[in-house]
């Protein structure tokens, strides 16, 4: 039987990213500035949630990862607003004839508590992607003080995205 997948009008992708926390840096997460004494060590603004979401979208079309598209050796991306990277990734998806369906993001962070920021993250990410906020899910968890997240050393994010092929 022929593989039906090449003609399947849906594709899914997953993304994963980790960033280390350090004092005195701004914390950007899901496109939102979080009030915290710590921020993420990174070449860009360190928005680990957006980076995982970018990788999920790129994964849908087997387009590699954000390190390939926006290398951290390139001075253009130094301190870059990750919303710009997400906008560029969405454009890559649309250029190929696909539209973004929905995305689901899980953020593992011990502190600060970020639940209050989730509505703003969903609205911000939806606006950047040009889709409805009810198509963006953001969930947050601690790791019950276990592992590097639990020790407050870093943040870990998983993202899943679904895209659909625009009928020709
Ligand atoms: Mg990253």
Strand order across the biggest sheet?
Answer: 4-1-7-5-6
Alpha-beta content class: alpha+beta
- How many E strands? 7
Give the total of domains: 1
In CATH, the topology is named 60s Ribosomal Protein L30, Chain: A
* Helix and strand pattern: EEEEHHHEHEHE
Question: How much helicity do the residues have?
Answer: 25-40%
The largest pleated sheet is described as: 5 strands, mixed
Question: Proportion of β residues?
Answer: 25-35%
CATH superfamily: 2-C-methyl-D-erythritol 2,4-cyclodiphosphate synthase
Ligands (ions, cofactors included): magnesium ion
What is the 3D shape? globular
How would you concisely characterize the structure shown here?
This protein is an alpha+beta fold. It has five helices and seven strands; from the N terminus they run ββββαααβαβαβ. It binds magnesium ion (MG).
């Amino acid at each position: 039987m022929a593989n039906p997948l090449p003609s399947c009008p849906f594709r899914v992708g997953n993304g994963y990213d980790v960033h280390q926390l350090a004092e005195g840096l701004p914390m950007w997460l899901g496109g939102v500035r979080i009030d915290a004494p710590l921020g993420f060590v990174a070449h860009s603004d360190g928005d680990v949630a957006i980076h995982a979401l970018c990788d999920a979208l790129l994964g849908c079309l087997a387009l590699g990862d954000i390190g390939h598209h926006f290398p951290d050796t390139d001075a253009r991306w130094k301190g870059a607003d990750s919303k710009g990277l997400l906008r560029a990734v969405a454009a890559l998806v649309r250029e190929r004839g696909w539209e973004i369906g929905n995305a689901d993001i899980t953020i593992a962070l011990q502190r600060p508590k970020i639940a209050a920021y989730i509505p703003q993250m969903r609205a911000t990410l939806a606006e950047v992607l040009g889709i409805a906020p009810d198509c963006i899910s953001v969930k947050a968890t601690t790791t019950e003080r276990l592992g590097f997240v639990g020790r407050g050393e870093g943040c870990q994010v998983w993202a899943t995205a679904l895209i659909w092929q625009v009928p020709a």
